[in-house]
Every structure is written in C-alpha cells, then in structure tokens.
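Appendix B, Record 12. Input sequence as logged:
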Amino acid sequence: MKRTLIGLSALWLTAPSARAAGFDSKTMVDSLPGREIERPLVIGKGWLELGLGADFKEATGQWGPEGEKIDWRDGATFTYNTQRVDLRYGISRRFELYGRFKTHYVRLTNEQLDTETDQFGMGDPNFGLKYEAFRSAGPLTSVILFTNYKGPAANESPGNYVGGPSTFSSFVLTTGTADWEMGARGKHQVGPLALSLGAAYVYRFSDVTQYAIETELNQFNMRVKPGNLTKVDADLMLQLGPIAVNGGALFTVRDVTRIGASSAGFFPAKNLRTEQGSDGVAVDAMAGLTLHASRRLDLIAGALLPVQGEDLMYFPIEDLHPTRGNTYSGTIEFRY
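Logged structural output:
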C-alpha cells in the first residue's frame, strides 16, 4: 500500500508539469488558453478552427496623387463587401496550416445619373504555413515565421472594351497574378496586456491578364507586374474578463506597377514599362473586440480606418489601389 501511495503521489506531482507544457495526454492535443492574450500565435497540435466572417466597405472617395482626400461627385458610392471562410489546423505543436476562401459583392451607384451596377463573384484564395520559432509561458512570448500563397482565381475580365467604358459589364476582382508572402510576427504578454508586432514582404508575380489591353495594335491580354508590398503592423490588446479589446496600425509600402508586352526567355517581365505614380505609402488604423463565448467559440468585431492612401489609378481593383472608405468586419470562430 505504501508503494501504491508513493506511485500515485508521483503521478500527481508530474501531471501539472505536463499540463504546463501545454499537452493533454487524454486528447492528444495541445491545451488552448481561454484568454486571447495568453494564446500563442499558432493554434496548437490537433486543433481545427473554422472562421466565418464578412467585411463591409462603402467608399465615397479616393486618394489624390499627393495623398489628399478627394470626394466623388454626384453622390457616387462603391460598395466592396467580402465573405470569408478561414481555416486553421495545428499539424504539430509548432506548425500550423491555414487558408482563406473568399467571395465578393461589389456595387457602383451614382444618384445623379440614376445608375447602379453590381456583381457577386469568387475571390482569390490564400494558403499558408506558420512555424513557431520560440515560445515561453508565464507570461506568454510567441514568435512565428510564416509564408502564404495567393492564387489568381477571381474574375479578371471587365468585358468588351469596343464602344468605350459604357460597354464594360463586369468588375475585376483580382490582380490576375499570384502573390507570395513571407514574414515574422511576435507577441508578448505583460499582465492583462499583449503587444504584437509583425513585418512581411509580398512578392507579386507578373502574368498575362485580361483587363490590361493594348488598343493601338489590338494586342489583348498584356502582362502586368503589380508592385511588391512591404508591410509592418503593431497591435496592443487589453483583456477585460471574457472580452479582449485591441487597437493598432498597419503601414504598407507599395512598389511601382509595370505593364507591357511579354519578353521571350526566362524573364517575361524584364521589358515592362513602369507606371509612374503607381507606388506609394498607405497607413490604416485598426480596432477590434473579441468575446470569448467559450473555449471553442469566439465572436469578433473589427474596423479598418484609412489614414493615408495612394492615387487611385486602377479602379476598381482593390488589391492594386484601394478606394477610400472604412471597412467593418464580423467573424465567428469555431474550434474543435
């Protein structure tokens, strides 16, 4: 009996250390903290998360060549709504697979002209991988490296250009080119606060697109090389019981876009001409609120507020040059 009690005592003493390491031997999955400020930047082994969300944007203006605000005339508005399905899966304690699938509803209206054009279509999907390079607990520190790929799957044809702009019948919902993003992000908890910092570089490949048209020689489907992106963001979160509120900023530097005919050989974009004024800097303010309904269910609301933008050269392709308008979002996250 004495040996049995000693054995049970040893098991009891070792169990907390196993739980502290973030592993549940019964379910064979990593433990997931109930509060957002204590959660690492990867979801953890064995967890599957499904996020259903929507983003709502209504623009009534644009940014000028010098970054000035320009309001559209005649009550014109451009609605750009996104419906999202987000997936995350922890393939190991330090590796996470994630993806995003989108659709868009867009509408352009003008009250003075009594016109309205709208369209619903598929967006570009994203697939990525996260690797947690460092983690410590009590308080939490989590550092990850990530990469993701965006495939050009959405509509890129505006319709027949013969007869002028009035013959265009479709909205372009993609750059028509692929993106490859690489970056790093860190999160550190200090009491009820958590500070997150991130940086990423997006290389945008060139490709032949249907919306870039050469009208003199009727050489359709010209090659486009969107400008690469450098992104830096900072976010501060405060945990108030089951509610976490956060605010931050996103800085984006955009390189010049290049357009032209494809070149022969291994570098088809080498002779593309530079579009002057297509580069620039954008600054957006971010705010959000997360409600922990349970460990397996979160309700999230957010807002993206533009502070500074770039000249609107490629309307209505939001991935090239966004219009000026606030974006409000809502998301429901389920975990199993």
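The longest helix spans residues 2-20.
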